[in-house]
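batch_manifest entry 22 of 60
target: Exocyst complex component
source organism: Cyprinodon variegatus
requested by: lab member K.T.
priority: normal
notes from requester: please return C-alpha cells only, no post-processing; we will run our own comparison against the previous entry in this batch. if the run fails, retry once and flag.
--- input ---
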Amino acid sequence: MIVQLAAERPPPAEAQHCAALSLNITIMADSETLEFVTEHERILQEIESTDTACVGPTLRSIYDDQPNAHKRFMEKLDARIRNHDREIEKMCNFHHQGFVDAITELLKVRADAEKLMGQVTDTNRRLQEAGRDVRAQTEEVIRCRIQQRNMATTVEKLQLCLPVLEMYSKLKEQLDSKRYYAALKTMEQLEKVYIPRVSHYRFCQIMAENLPRLREEIKDISMSDLKDFLESIRKHSDKVGETAMRQAQQHRTFNSAVAKQLHIGHYSKPVYSLSRHTNTHLSNGLWSNDDTGDDEDADEEILTAQDLVDFSPVYRCLHIYSVLGDRETFENYYRKQRKKQARLVLQPQANMHETVEGYRRYFNQIVGFFVVEDHILHATRGLVTRAFTDELWNMALSKIIAVLRTHSSYCEDPDLVLELKNLIVICADTLQGYGFPVSRLFDLLFEVRDQYNETLLKKWAAVFREIFESDNYSPIPVETEEEYKLVTSRFPFHDPEIEKQDFPKKLPMSQSVPQIYTQVKEFIYASLKFSESLHRSSTEIDDMLRKSTNLLLTRTLSSCLQNLTKKPHIGLTELVQIIINTTHLEQACKYLEEFITNITNISPETVHTTRLYGLSTFKDARHAAEGEIYTKLNQKIDEFIQLADYEWSMAESDGRASGYLMDLINFLRSTFQVFTHLPGKVAQTACMSACKHLSTSLMQMLLDSELKQISMGAIQQFNLDVMQCELFASSEPVPGFQGDTLQLAFIDLRQLLDLFMVWDWSTYLADYGQPNSKYLRVNPATALALLEK
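--- output ---
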C-alpha cells in the first residue's frame, strides 16, 4: 500500500509546474474573448485526451490560426496548468495525514515482514530440498511414461509395417528362388493393400519406387529364360522328333500286326500317344518291335516331349507377361522367334541327299518342332493358335516338298530313296497323329516313287549289263539232277524231250536267262518295298508293280538287249543264243504275271489291270538280233567275196570251184547247223538272205565297172562257182524249204551264165518278153554290159 501511495503521489517539481500552468490558464481565461475560450478549451481537451503521438497536428492547428493565437493559447495552457496544480495540492493536503499514518504502520510492519520473509525463505529452502527428489522421481516417471507411450506407438506402427516387411521379405525370397509369377502377385498385394497403409514412411516409398524396377528385372529374366527355352527346344527338336517318330513306327507296326491277324488289307488311321514303349532299330533306320528283345527293353519308357524339354520357362514367362499386362508383346515375340526357328529347321544341309542320316536328322527336326508347337498349342491358351500352327505347317509343307524334290533328284541309290520314302511315311503318320494335314506328303510319295523307279532302272541296267558281259552265250550244261533242279528253281523251264534225256545234258538257253529272270523278280520285290506302308489298296499296288515292271522290260532290258546285239564282239553264235534266250524269256512272261498276282492277290482278268509288255519287248529284241544276224552274215559273205581273185583273161577254167567260194560255202554250212536251235522261219530267212546276198555280190562282181574284159574261160570258171552255190542251195542247209525255193536265189546268175555259155542269143531275142521265156530273168542291160566285156 505504501508503494502504491508513493506511486500515486506526483513529484514536487511537477506539482509546481502544474500549479503554475493552472494559474496562467485562469488568467488567460479572464482576459480572452469568448470565441477564443471555446476553441482553446477544445484543443486542451484534445491534448489531454489523445495520445502524445497525436499532439503534433493539434499544436500545428494553433500555429496555423490567427497571428499571436499561440500566445493566447500558451496563456490559456498556463492557466490550465495552474488550475491542475491547485487541484493536486488540495488532494495532497487532503490525504497527507493518511499518508503519514500509512508510513508509520508500514514501518511497524517492516519488522514483521522481514521476519515473515525469513520464514518464507526457510520454508522455501526446505520445500526446494524436499521437492528435489520428488522432481527427479517425477521426471523419471514422465520419462518412463513417454517411453511407454513411444513404445506403444512404435508397436502399433510396427504392427502396421510388419506385414509390409514380411511381404517384401517374401518377395525377395520368391525372387531368389526364381518364383517370378508368385513374386508378381506379391508385388500386386504390396501395392494395393500393404504399402498404402504405411505410405508416409520413407522405407515404404523406397519399396514403392523399387517395385517397377523389380518388375522390369523379372521381365528381363523371364525373357532371358524364354530365349534359353527357345534355344533348348531347337537343340532338342531332334530327340523329340525321333521319339515321336519311334512311337508312330511302333503304333504302325502294332496296327499292321493286328490287321494281319484280322485279315484286314488296309491300315487304320494311326492315333498316337506320347506314352508308348521303345522299339529297336531296323536296318533301314526306322523302328520296329523286337519280340526277341529283353523284357527290360520292352518295359523301358519312351521319353515324352515334356521329359525332353522343360516347358516351365515358357509357362512362367507367359504368366508373367499376362500379369504385367504385356501378353500381346510376349505372344508376338514368341511367334516371331518360332517362325525364324521354323525357317532354320526347314533349311537342309547341302549334303543331306548323300546319307540317310541327313534325311533322318532333317525329319526329326521338323517333327520335333511341330510336336513342340502342338504341345504349346494345347498347354497354353492363346500363346499360339490353330491358325498360327496351320500357317507354319503350310509354309513348312511347301518348303519340305521343294527340298525333297530337289534333294531326291540327286539320289542315285535306290536303297537311299527307299529309306527316304520310309522316313516320309513315318513323318506323315506322326504329324497326322497330331492333327496336321499330310495329304500333300503322300502325294509327294508318288513323285518319289518315280524317282525310286528311275534309280532302280539305272541299278538294274548295270546288273543286266554285267550279266550280259559275263555270259558265255552257250547252252547251260547240267551234270546232275541237283543242278537241273537248281536251274529250274530259278527259271520256269519245262521241256519234256530234254527231261527225258540222260545226264549230262544241256539246256537250250544260256546262263544269263535264269539270272535275268531272277533279277526281274528281285526288281518286283524292290518295287514292292516302296509300295508298303503307303495306305494304298491292293489294286493300286498291283498297278504300281506292273507299271514299274513294264518300264524295266520295255526300257531297261530292251535297251540292254539292243545295245548287246550291236556290240562288235557279238558274233553269229552269240546272236543265235540271244534269240534263243529271248524266246525263253518271252515264254516266261506269263510266270511273271502269276508272280505279281500271287503278291497282290489281284487277278489279271480284273478290269483295268495293266498287262506286262514283256512279249513285245522280247520280240523286238529278237527281231533286232535277227536283223543283226542277217547283217553280220552278209558282212561275212562280203569278207569272203573280197578274197576272190579271178583271172578274167584265162583261156580255160581250172575245172574246179574257186577256193574262196568253197571256204564260204563251208562257213555257211557250219553256221546254218548252229541255226538248228532257232525258230524255223528265222533260220530259213537267214539262209535265203545269205544266198540272195551271195548271188547279188557275184552279179556285181561280173558287172563291176572297173572290169573291162572277161574271157570265156573266166566265164566257165565263174560258172563252176555258181554251180557250187546251187549245189549248196539244193542240199537244204536249213530244213523247211519247199522244192528248189532256195535255188531261186541264184536264178538270175544261172540264166545269164547259160546265155553266154550256150550263146543262145537267137532264143533270148525271140522269146524276150514272153512269160515262158527261157531267159526271163536276164535283164537286157545286164546282158549287153557283160557282152561288151
